[in-house]
């Protein structure tokens, strides 16, 4: 049974798209989700992400320094592999020590060795967790809370090079329009 569902999901991308949209709808209906956050969830769900990264620091950098370190790390990946890396970056502060840490959704990194870039971050700045992005774990919904926090001045988010990201198909069974019927 398990193999059948895996094959079915691979064969039927329209079903996956419907499930993704239904999960966004469930998030909205089951809780009081801020409408701005829901819009960002819908936007970011339209793209194919490769990595989910959480980056922390050994020292206590200022906000702009923490963000610039993450951008410098991303530029190093881009320069080494000769491709744009679209990303969604969120800066958060720990509750107890008020230490900054960064969460990233990164795309266009198929075939890039994660452990190498984990080592680069670790030797320069601090700890890192870099995972292959799994849509079912809810990373997008988690990261979109920082959009609302940014509205209230408690967080920071940034998005870049989304035009280079692979966009997932949105066609859920296109209805023929009246123009198509006339032809």
What keywords describe this structure?
single chain; 183 residues; alpha+beta; Alpha-Beta Plaits; 2 domains; five-stranded antiparallel β-sheet; 5 strands; globular; disordered C terminus
Total count of domains: 2
Unreliably modeled segments: 171-183
CATH architecture assignment of the largest domain: 2-Layer Sandwich
Mean pLDDT level: 80
> Tally the helices: what do you get?
8
What is the name of the CATH topology of the largest domain?
A: Alpha-Beta Plaits
Estimated share of beta-strand residues: 15-25%
User: Which sequence of SSEs, written as H and E, runs from N to C?
Assistant: HHHEHEEHEHHEH
> What's the helical proportion of residues?
40-55%
Sheet with the most strands? 5 strands, antiparallel
Number of strands: 5
The order of strands across the largest sheet is 4-1-3-2-5
Structure overview:
- With 183 residues, the chain is an alpha+beta fold.
- The protein has 2 domains: 1-32; 33-168, Alpha-Beta Plaits (2-Layer Sandwich), CATH 3.30.70.1910.
- The protein has helices at 2-11, 13-30, 35-44, 63-81, 114-124, 139-143, 145-151, 178-182; strands spanning 51-56, 87-93, 100-106, 128-132, 156-160.
- The protein has a 5-stranded antiparallel beta sheet with strand order 4-1-3-2-5, with helices on both faces.
- The termini are far apart.
- The relative contact order is 0.19.
- Mean pLDDT is 80; it is low at 171-183.
